[in-house]
Design the sequence.
């Protein structure tokens, strides 16, 4: 028989939520590693008291009871694995794996049994349901009634919040069954009550997450954060990891506490508690215990009187109470000598710390990524500038983290670190494939030539040269707009044409325009194509044929009503998701039918487009002829206006005789010229008529 048994995709029931992971049974005991948090539960073989095999919602489950009263539940087994597990338990643990089925009669009265940390509601000898008492947050009593309240579970869509038990009165004197029931629950329930004095208190510590200044009261079983607005009670059992990280300025320290489950404030969840300390701040600490109690409880890890840096005292006390190691940065050193890298995650700037077994980013939002959950990493060029790059991490669950705006000088150090840790690099080349896992990636050569680094340097040099060069080529329009003082010859030509056009308005402005020709001319040259762009980008022609739909869209239009009828009240987003699932699950033969329909629609579209393009070319020719005709009309009008201005200039001495008096001759000539100009505008052909003669004006005055 094998010495070990391993099972993947096993679910452990913890506080009402199912956490997936890997289960391994060996001679020494049972080990379960949580895939989400990396937390490891180790049950020694000598501690096992009972093993139960039963049918559950996810197939079959295994319930293990220890001698100290703890209960562990693992679901996700197949029925065929019972014999293998039963033989293993007999051979290595000397236990019979008992089969017990749950009662499904539906009765709501029975017997309550308390065993260790478990409340079991039984009908006869069969259990109906079990409640781990560690899930209970409060227990209240009434007349013949006990109410249990539970911690809210964030991972579950629906959480059980309350259960009430009716306890019938008994004839025994001196024993209240309701109080006895409540005492059994409270003795094992996870009810945090601040009884007694705190071991020590740290005053006014700066907390980044949750933000504010808090007094930290250290109790034997939990941590109490007392602020001006909020209070948090954190049991030490919820602490996963402790981190002590130096700030990049070498004057401050981060102390990070990882929590699971997180602390809550309304709808906000805080998975990390981050404290910020100054290295220069010292403290003298006296524990609220006598020396014998300190020695007995902490075994030399703490003393009654301690002094030193504030961050050292806090981390030392937390390490002793939580009984977990403190993680510090490893041997990584960045370009500036710091043990972290400045970068941005989402919208905030922070620090990324490469650790010996993972990465941690502080502080908003804090992120911790273990190496064993990383699928691959990727080095990407920065989107805004070549002086920085992005570092992307994708986990095995498909979650992607992008740390952007990392200085280019940090690339070599970070690449060497990732390479030494044997992480899979996505854009490394064809020699190392993405299929290799973290454990198998052991043959990578750390000293090999880094082609990506060389390519990145070359591209950066090319971009810098292009930014500094003058833009006189055909495809360098974007650079021209940033160098308006160049290409003086072209500017002068454009200015000359503009100056001649504007000279008719007045000679006095020409001198001022000559003094700054380049600026005006450059603006005109750059804006000419921009004015034409809106003309070329016309709106869609309503007569143009519509593009053909894909096979999926044809199927969706035909099936939309059926999906709505099968799922009443479904939203548009959920309908799209459901349609995508149905299309993905559809057989190849059915998809071919819709592919044929899409192909027919495409042929019809191409045929219609040919006919439309022919008709469009005829329309274009007609519009060109019409445009030429309009240009001729505008030219004829310009000639007539020039002749009119000459005749009016010959009469200018008569106008200047008096400013306050206008003769009838002046009024009539002015009205006749304006009438003629209106007439010219309404004519189809631009034939110029002779200006009014002096005889006509004289007759008008008579």
Sequence:
């Amino acid at each position: 028989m094998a010495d070990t048994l391993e099972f993947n995709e096993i679910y452990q029931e913890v506080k009402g939520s199912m956490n997936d992971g890997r289960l391994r049974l060996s001679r020494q005991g049972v080990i379960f590693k949580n895939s989400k948090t990396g937390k490891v539960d180790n049950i020694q073989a000598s501690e096992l008291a009972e093993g139960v095999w039963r049918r559950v919602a996810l197939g079959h489950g295994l319930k293990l009871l220890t001698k100290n009263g703890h209960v562990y539940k693992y679901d996700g087994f197949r029925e065929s694995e019972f014999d293998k597990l039963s033989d293993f338990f007999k051979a290595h643990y000397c236990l019979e794996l008992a089969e017990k089925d749950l009662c499904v009669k539906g009765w709501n009265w029975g017997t309550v049994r308390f065993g260790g940390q478990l409340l079991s509601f039984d009908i006869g000898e069969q259990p109906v349901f079990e409640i781990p008492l560690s899930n209970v947050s409060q227990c209240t009593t009434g007349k013949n009634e006990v109410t249990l309240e539970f911690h809210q579970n964030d991972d579950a869509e629906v959480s059980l919040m309350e259960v009430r038990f009716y306890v019938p009165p008994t004839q025994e004197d001196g024993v209240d069954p309701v109080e006895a029931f409540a005492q059994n629950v409270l003795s094992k329930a996870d009810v945090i009550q601040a009884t007694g004095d705190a071991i020590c208190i740290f005053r006014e510590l700066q907390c980044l997450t949750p933000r504010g200044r808090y007094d930290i009261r250290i109790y034997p079983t939990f941590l109490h954060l007392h602020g001006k607005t909020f209070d948090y009670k954190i049991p030490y059992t919820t602490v996963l990891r402790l981190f002590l990280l130096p700030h990049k300025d070498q004057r401050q320290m981060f102390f990070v506490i990882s929590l699971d489950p997180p602390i809550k404030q309304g709808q906000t969840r805080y998975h990390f508690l981050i404290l910020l300390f100054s290295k220069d701040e010292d403290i003298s600490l006296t524990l609220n215990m006598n020396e014998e109690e300190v020695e007995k409880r902490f075994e030399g890890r703490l003393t009654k009187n301690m002094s030193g840096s504030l961050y050292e005292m806090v981390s030392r006390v937390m390490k002793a109470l939580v009984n977990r190691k403190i993680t510090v940065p490893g041997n990584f050193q960045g370009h500036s000598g710091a043990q972290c890298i400045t970068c941005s995650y989402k919208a905030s700037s922070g620090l990324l710390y490469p650790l010996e077994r993972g990465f941690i980013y502080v502080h908003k939002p804090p992120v911790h990524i273990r190496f064993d959950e990383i699928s691959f990493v990727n080095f990407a060029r920065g989107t805004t500038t070549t002086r920085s790059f992005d570092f992307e991490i994708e986990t095995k669950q498909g979650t992607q983290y992008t740390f952007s705006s990392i200085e280019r000088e940090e690339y070599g150090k970070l690449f060497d670190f990732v390479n030494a840790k044997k992480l899979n690099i996505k854009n490394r080349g064809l020699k190392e494939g993405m299929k290799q896992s973290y454990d198998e990636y052991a043959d990578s050569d750390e000293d090999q030539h880094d082609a990506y680094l060389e390519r990145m340097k070359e591209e950066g040099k090319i971009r810098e040269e292009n930014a500094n060069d003058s833009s006189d080529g055909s495809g360098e329009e974007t650079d021209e707009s940033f160098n308006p003082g160049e290409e003086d010859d072209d500017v002068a030509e454009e200015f000359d044409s503009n100056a001649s056009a504007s000279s008719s308005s007045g000679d006095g402005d020409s001198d001022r325009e000559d003094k700054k020709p380049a600026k005006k001319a450059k603006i005109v040259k750059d804006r000419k194509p921009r004015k034409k762009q809106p003309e070329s980008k016309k709106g869609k022609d309503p007569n143009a044929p519509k593009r053909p739909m894909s096979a999926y869209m044809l199927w969706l239009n035909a099936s939309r009503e059926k999906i709505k009828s099968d799922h009443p009240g479904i939203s548009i987003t959920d309908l799209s998701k459901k349609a995508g699932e149905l299309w993905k699950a559809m057989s190849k033969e059915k998809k071919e039918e819709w592919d044929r329909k899409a192909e027919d629609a495409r042929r019809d579209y191409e045929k219609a487009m040919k006919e439309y393009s022919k008709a469009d070319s005829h329309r274009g020719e007609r519009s060109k002829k019409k445009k030429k005709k309009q240009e001729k009309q505008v030219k004829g009008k310009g000639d007539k206006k020039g002749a009119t201005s000459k005749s009016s200039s010959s009469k200018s001495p008569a106008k200047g005789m008096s400013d306050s008096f206008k003769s009838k001759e002046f009024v009539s000539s002015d009205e006749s010229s304006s009438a003629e100009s209106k007439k010219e505008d309404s004519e189809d052909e631009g034939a110029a008529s002779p200006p009014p003669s002096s005889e006509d004006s004289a007759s008008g005055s008579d």
Notes: Residues 588-650 form the longest helix (63 residues). Residues 111-187 form a domain with the PH-domain like fold (CATH 2.30.29.220).
